[in-house]
Amino acid sequence: MSLSRYSSRWWIFFSMVSLCKAEIIYQDLPLVPTFALAHGVLMGLAFAIIFPLGAILLRVPHSKLSIKIHIICQVLGVALMIAGLATGVRVGRIIDRLHNNAHTIVGTVVVVFLLAQPLVGVYHHRRFRATQTQSVWTFVHVWLGRIMLVLGIVNGGMGLRLAANTTAGNIAYGVLAGAFGVVYVGVAAWKGGLKLGRKEKKSPSHEEIEI
């Protein structure tokens, strides 16, 4: 994309924002493209790649090492998410689009729940170590992660639309997120089928890994 087309696209975006609300930090407007790009890249990496990858690698390969890889991926994803949140808040303050639109509201909800997710995971793990059985916290940890991941990916698409992103950019994001989503669903279905078809009793360590 040429510089003139890029600049004109952001000028249209700024004009639309100014029509909705006048409380804009005009002197910082030149910073918006840089911060918005950083926000999109960081959140895209976190929700379209790192978080799904961590969930996939928890199930493949089937070993205790997969839990460590899962934790590393999720910690990295949270770090990217926090950095993305910081850049997003900066953009929102400059153009007065902080918590007055669906993208920032949903994004805030997702971030809050995902920041609590590691605490739920630690508590679930301790409960499992003590009882050697899955508890309600196991399912809270698993399904909270799944729901927030889906919301985060959908919210990424909302953010691209809000920023008047190019069609090519939207397609690239959709293809990438969709590919990881399909792989995750496929692996989960495969592991679920193996679990149902397995007649012998699972060992406690395997029971925790297959959540």
Automatic annotation (TrEMBL):
Its main location: membrane. Residues 1-22 form the signal peptide. It is found in: Membrane. It comes from Aspergillus nanangensis. Residues 1-196 form the Cytochrome b561 domain. The chain crosses the membrane at residues 32-57, 69-89, 101-124, 136-158, 170-190. It holds the Pfam family DUF2427. GO terms for cellular component: membrane. The keyword Membrane applies. The keyword Iron-sulfur does not apply. This is Cytochrome b561 domain-containing protein. InterPro entries: Cyt_b561/ferric_Rdtase_TM, DUF2427. It comes from the Eukaryota. CDD domains: Cyt_b561_FRRS1_like. Keywords: Electron transport, Membrane, Signal, Transmembrane, Transmembrane helix, Transport.
